[in-house]
Amino acid sequence: MNMESPVAESPEVLVERLAQAGRSAQRALALMSDVQKAKALKAAAAALRDDEPSILAANAKDLAAGEAKGLSGAMLDRLKLDSQRIAAIADAIDQVAGLADPVGEVIDRRERPNGLVLSRVRIPIGVIGIIYESRPNVTADAAALCLRSGNAVLLRGGSEALHSNRAIHAAMVRGLESAGVPSAAVQLVPTQSREVVGAMLTAAGLIDMIVPRGGKSLVARVQADARVPVLAHLDGICHTYVHGSADPDMARAIARNAKMRRTGICGAMETLLLDAKFPASVALVRDLLDTGCELRGDARSRALDARIVPASEEDWDTEYLDAILSVAVVDGLDAALEHIATHSSHHTDAIVTSDDAVAERFLAEVDSAIVMVNASSQFADGGEFGLGAEIGIATGRLHARGPVALEGLTTYKWLVRGTGQTRP
Amino acid sequence: MNMESPVAESPEVLVERLAQAGRSAQRALALMSDVQKAKALKAAAAALRDDEPSILAANAKDLAAGEAKGLSGAMLDRLKLDSQRIAAIADAIDQVAGLADPVGEVIDRRERPNGLVLSRVRIPIGVIGIIYESRPNVTADAAALCLRSGNAVLLRGGSEALHSNRAIHAAMVRGLESAGVPSAAVQLVPTQSREVVGAMLTAAGLIDMIVPRGGKSLVARVQADARVPVLAHLDGICHTYVHGSADPDMARAIARNAKMRRTGICGAMETLLLDAKFPASVALVRDLLDTGCELRGDARSRALDARIVPASEEDWDTEYLDAILSVAVVDGLDAALEHIATHSSHHTDAIVTSDDAVAERFLAEVDSAIVMVNASSQFADGGEFGLGAEIGIATGRLHARGPVALEGLTTYKWLVRGTGQTRP
């Protein structure tokens, strides 16, 4: 007990209170139909559009405070809302409303010789905590995805976006409540105290899953401290292996796209493995160098172009998220598989080849969440996978891997229907 | 670094070495066919039968040491092997060999408008750590299930069973190796140091999942200390609610069976909720009292039979694992749902009713891994569910819930087959 401020709730008590309110809202939500949930989300999107003036006013406060605090231009840009961005946020909610509801899906059904009928059905996970940084759109995106899959959500955003998050949250809750969803289904943590994050991370049994959304240091801290299961999205050290049989034009186009389309996303290629037998390596690396990419290579790759600088041992384990690429020349599929097994972060790895047997071995033997043949690793994305919006790309091995959308926000229970069976 | 004994490996280094050996064995295992893995397990079962004399000799050492240490009769019985028990262990391995291999199953397949073909296929989890107590059969059971699903396993059994575990492990490995499985696929931790358990629990990235098998205190310690995901099996505070419409004979038979068939299993009923409208409550509680069950009741249930003693608040949250049962009289389905939501451990909860609408509400609203209608909660078991042998009954909400067999020992990866697609 804190004797100095007996009135204030401790972070643990606060989190317990929020989580319990969330749990009881979630029980109500779990019983709502697909149609009701979709309607509620559409009402939330409409309320968000209606509240544009107050959201912009709140955002202006955050921007002013951010400038006063000396936030970087990039940070301020992430924080900034305008009419177009608010419209995009509302549209994204409408899109989530339009996704198919995974809850209630029967995954498995079996009848036992004794007449018991077993079915495994998808249900919401329960209470999900989202811990995120300065982008205010996460408030709406994450809330919409959790709600669409029947979960209650506790949102804890960055302090830079405090006023914006509050305004977005207030609009959404008004819309949701107008459609019969209890307000505690979407709660914004009312304080920016850092201790509250710690209390969320250790609230086992109260919060069922934590999803960190933000940079590596945030995710790493959450993973290190959490006692609650975490759906974490860590490094994307993605490889593209260009096999000797690869079509040269295809390989060049894929390499350019995988690295340079957007360098800052987790599906961007970070290491290029060129087979010694691939005949167009010189042209391929020249493409990348000419578009302004820095190449850091092993001795053999440096022979391809004088502009390639030497790679250090660290480079093979680095996610640049920038116009930098490590390059190695390898002898055949086994050497490529070995390099990938040693250095991949198991996010997305790709091969370019025209040999089907080689492609199938690569698909079978690479142990990553996503394994691709003849495609750019930048397709690693829930939208591109046809899953709708994603809550994140999971790099853990359990529960969900790769792009995680609504289905990854569900779990299941077993229903057993009997006629009086007792166990012998 | 430990300067006092520079030769000895630290627990962390030992676990890292074992896990890495396991990882590379697992890569080989992941490529073995269903038939090969089944054959290897059959060879392991045969080797176990061949080694009966040496296993019995090892077990005699453990029993002698246990007696000298003053282990209880129940503990010694758990530890004891004889011809029949060794045969049962070997038969169980043969049974696991006969189960369908989940690895390679295509869970989902979708073709995108751009021609990318996506499939989600089941793969092994990787390296699984099993931490268990004195039953030597776990060595064989857990190894067989992990191996059948393509995982490598690190076994850390109780020190009481050290010699027995070593003998069983040696036999299995000899059999597996004869069929081409690398010995590091099944490793027994070579020391009983407690620090090694700690090192296993924190070996994130080296060990992919920990399965504790044993009593509550072991499981709780593992859950508290683990940084690696845990497939934990905690309390089974299972409820049976007898609705007013329940068939009296069915309700009596189910209540007797759910409580008294075996009182020590996690699926045993621990709380009975009798609807005030159920007409045969007096007979039902008398059945239980007459078979020697202690009943601890609320005021209303105590009016049913003078032998019912008062329940304390604690009783509603207690897993007795014994011939003791808490009993309450409730008014209708909503009161029963509320009691279950408050006190259930979310393992297995059941209703007895002849009203289909009530049954469906119970199935929908009870948030437990297993929800049953008109059946004894003692059916909560992988074998009874038709899943084959189980590695445990999971009480967590993510990855796997309820009885966990081979499928729960797998995860998935996404395969993306393209024809040169780059992302716009």
Automatic annotation (TrEMBL), chains A, B:
UniProt domain Aldehyde dehydrogenase: residue ranges: 10-276
Keyword Translocase part of the UniProt annotation: no
Similarity annotation: Belongs to the gamma-glutamyl phosphate reductase family.
Primary site of residence: cytoplasm
This protein's record includes keyword Amino-acid biosynthesis: yes
Protein keywords: Amino-acid biosynthesis, Cytoplasm, NADP, Oxidoreductase, Proline biosynthesis
Matching HAMAP family: ProA
Subcellular location: Cytoplasm
Pathway: Amino-acid biosynthesis; L-proline biosynthesis; L-glutamate 5-semialdehyde from L-glutamate: step 2/2
Chemical reaction(s) catalysed: L-glutamate 5-semialdehyde + phosphate + NADP(+) = L-glutamyl 5-phosphate + NADPH + H(+)
Gene designation: proA
GO molecular function: glutamate-5-semialdehyde dehydrogenase activity
Lineage, highest ranks first: Bacteria, Pseudomonadati, Pseudomonadota, Alphaproteobacteria, Sphingomonadales
Enzyme Commission number: 1.2.1.41
This protein's name: Gamma-glutamyl phosphate reductase
Source species: Novosphingobium rhizovicinum
Function: Catalyzes the NADPH-dependent reduction of L-glutamate 5-phosphate into L-glutamate 5-semialdehyde and phosphate. The product spontaneously undergoes cyclization to form 1-pyrroline-5-carboxylate.
Domain of life: Bacteria
